Amino acid sequence: MVWGGGGDWIDLMKLSGPDTYFVWQMQMRCLLQSHDMLGFISSHALGKEKVGDDDMMWIRSDALVKGWILGSLSQQTLEKVVKPTPNKDFTAKDVWDKLQTIYEYDDQEIIRREENTENRIEQESTEENKQKKKKEHDAGILYDATLRQNIFLVEYILSRKYVTLRDKITINGNTALHVAVGTCNNKKFLKHMLDLAIHDKQKSLNTKNSEESNTAPPVAVGTKDKQQSLDMRNSEGSNLLHVAAIVGNKEAAELLLNEKKDLLFETDNERQTPVARALSNMHKDTYLYLMTQGDEFDDIGGCDLLVNIISSKDYDSAFSLVSKRIDSFLSHIDSVLMAIAQNFPSKLNYWERNSIRCGSRDFTFLNYNFESLHKSKFIEALEEKEKNYKYAKKLLSFICSTIKDKRLPRSVHHYYNNALLEATRQNAYEEVESFVCPLNIIQKNWFGETPQMVFTKQHKDLVIDGEKWMKETAQSYTITAALITTIVFAAAITVPGGNKQEIGIPVFAKKTAFTIFAASDTISLFTSVTSLLMFLSILTARFSEQDFLFRLPRKLIIGLTTLFISTTAMLVAFGATLFLVFCDNNQDILIPIVALTCLPIACFAALQFPLIKDLVSSTYFRRNVFGKKSDDPFY
Questions:
Q1: 3-class DSSP state for residue 15?
Q2: Which residues of the chain register pLDDT less than 50?
Q3: Please, what is the end-to-end C-alpha distance for the chain in angstroms?
Q4: How far apart are CA 485 and CA 626, in angstroms?
Q5: Cβ atoms of 156 and 165 closer than 8 Å
Q6: What b/e readout covers 234-253, taking b as 16+ CB neighbours within 10 angstroms?
């Protein structure tokens, strides 16, 4: 904002560099023309030396124009204009010409300016510093020319031979090719830059060959130098393809892979491939292209890439990759499944499905409203969510069907959801001990550890997790067993219908339903007490490694089984009580009582049976790591 005279402030854009010069020049000309003061910067403007000292009106007007110009400059630009000016009484025309000199020049002017600078360097520096300053100077010009995509200026700088395309011209170690790949999508300019990487070497090699003996074998030119230029890395260890992947320059990636395929498999300082870099920067077109070009990723690297794609929720690309190379992922399929489970999208609910359905319809009487709804961001987000869900489901179904059809390692098919079952399966030490030489059992390794000590150390976390899970489970079931014991004990004392006062015999003692009640209540009481004792013994166990093989699983199996029996018997006793007290021998009411009694029993069995089944299978019917059945007895 500058003072425009007449009490007005004028807001002007700051001139900060070459990219804003032409816009700034246009607005400044408009400002001066509106005040009829354009002549102060024109080529016919009078200098101060041609104006009399008594002409104060011209001096004031020139100072006003000069103030406008200087006020619209950034601090950096202002220093470039004011400091080099030897005369303190410079005019607005002097400032205008200085800015034109700085920002208005063509390629030939650049060459002339650099030649003048070179002459000045030759006069001021020693021979050793000359080369260094010339190289630094040309490196800066090469950097600017590459940013401007000025191939003529690039060729001129390279022809001076102070700097080459293999020299690092930025503080982070980028070469001119790095800069071109990272800032330019002009395929023609990039192709010309890659050709320049070969041209200089060809010329130098041809000159050298002409000086050598004619009997010398011919030298293949261009290929070696081209590879050296393409192999150049910056301070982060990134090659040219890394840079193209980071910025998403697919055109540059195509050109680079046409020249050298091995760039695709090289890693930077963080051990990241170009595909991983493109994926982490979410350049979908680039990493999809790079994936189609590489069929030689190792299993671990390819699996990590697939996990990253799934984590970025690009299920379409993940399915394309898996469908082509499923065999290379099978050895690490557990990490892939874990990534799918952690990132699996939610299905559209009822209202979301209806929103998409309504948004896609074309009703005549509400055409405008529904058309705007269809184009809204909300509908687009729902459609994208539905698309992600379909592809994720398709990906998971394909992997699961492949696992089912192939014979995969046991770790893929048997993934246990709690630490106790996993600890029960980890019986490798006992199995190895059963067939190795007895002397090997007590031998020590380099750190003075026996096999048992190493096994204990490696499974320490598993033992801790198993103990935590067992205690939490036992505490929950202990409360349930205690409640059942209390209920059935009270029911045994206060029998349904009461007792006869004279002899103390229950009123319904001779009825079949009462006999069922008494038997069920007795079974429920004893089994609940047994279950309670089993869970209490788990809470007070030592939780050693050997306990996880049989003792702890056995106690948990007995506790769960007796708890199920006691719960079932308690419900049967309750149903018999209802029939005795309220039904009055009406057999029709017996059916709903039986149906309602079976409902909680079926729920309990459905919820607890998988756990009991896994416990029994892993404890008594398990196979060891080497395929030999366990010889341990059932109890």
A1: strand
A2: 7, 201-202, 204-205, 207-208, 210-226, 299-300, 360-374, 407-417, 625-635
A3: 93
A4: 45
A5: no
A6: beeebbbbbbbbbbbbbbbb
At residue 635, the pLDDT reads 30
CA distance 533 to 539: 10
Helix/strand/coil for 10: strand
Angle at 89 (CA atoms; ends 85, 95), nearest 5 degrees: 50
* Closest-CA residue to 27 (of 9, 11, 4): 11
Residue for token pair 């994926």: 279
CATH 1.20.140 fits 454-620, yes or no: yes
Angstrom distances, CA of residue 94 to CA of 45, 74, 132, 379: 10, 18, 34, 60
Query: Is the torsion defined by CA of 611, 614, 617, 620 positive or negative?
Result: negative
Please give the pLDDT value at position 353: 57
With b meaning 16 or more CB within 10 Å and e meaning fewer, what string describes 421-457? bbbbbbbebebbeeeeeeeeeeeeeeeeeebeeebee
Alpha helices (H) in 326-376, listed in sequence order: 333-343, 350-359, 367-374
Contact yes or no for 347/385 (Cβ under 8 A)? no
Separation CA 131–CA 114 (nearest Å): 14
Q: Do 283 and 314 touch, CB atoms closer than 8 A?
A: no
298 phi and psi, to 5 degrees?
A: -70, 165
Report helix, strand and coil shares of the chain as percent, to nearest 5: 70, 0, 30
* pLDDT of amino acid 410: 43
Strand partners, 73: 15
Residue pointed to by tokens 């069920």: 520
pTM for the model stands at 0.42
**Among all chains, which residue has been given the structure tokens 């790949």?**
181
Other CB atoms within 10 Å distance of the CB of residue 466: 24
- Which two structure tokens, joined as six digits, stand for 313? 């929720």
